Amino acid sequence: RIQLVESGGDSVQVGGSLRLSCVASLETRDPYCMVWFRQAPGKEREGVAAFYTGDDSTYLADSVKGRFTVSQDNAKNTLYLHMNSLKAEDTAMYYCAASLGAHDCYSGSWSSNGRSMDSWGKGTQVTVSP
């Protein structure tokens, strides 16, 4: 397992932007499928965006395409979620998670409930208000 620490959550107005960060304590050079999940009260956890460190491929949920992007700074071992044009329905706790290897990214299973993830951060809250 790796340690993941998220930051950057805040309260913003509809239409605003935020950048979430996830610092990973990676002791090996093994590739990981890194995923941003979110969970709103009363709703199931859902994958929002994924990044495979083996080839820098990125994946986005349909609900955030055109508004969110995901990127990584290798030198800082940091995964970012850039969120623009935020909507009230983006309000949720956002979590960073990781699974070893490419399977979750390539198969698309990253977009489900995250049961296959090996490591999780504690989350950062994003609140979008009218």
Tell me the strand percentage band.
Answer: over 45%
Tell me which oligomeric state these chains represent.
single chain
**Gap from first CA to last CA:** 39 Å
Mean model confidence by pLDDT: 95
What overall geometry do the principal axes of the alpha carbons give? Answer: globular
Secondary structure tally, helices: 1
* Rg over CA atoms: 14 Å
Give the SSE string: EEEEEEEEEHEE
Q: Name the structural class.
A: mainly beta
The number of strands is 11
Low-confidence stretches: none
The biggest beta sheet is recorded as:
7 strands, mixed
Helix content: under 10%
Overview of this protein structure:
4% of the residues lie in helices and 49% in strands. By secondary structure, the chain is mainly beta. The strands form two sheets. Strands 2, 4, 5, 6, 9, 10 and 11 form a seven-stranded mixed beta sheet that branches. Strands 1-3-8-7 form a four-stranded antiparallel beta sheet, with no helix packed on it. The longest helix has 5 residues, at 103-107. It starts with a strand and ends with a strand.
What's the short story on this structure?
With 130 residues, the chain is mainly β. The protein contains one helix and eleven strands, in the order βββββββββαββ. Strand 4 and strand 5 form a beta hairpin.
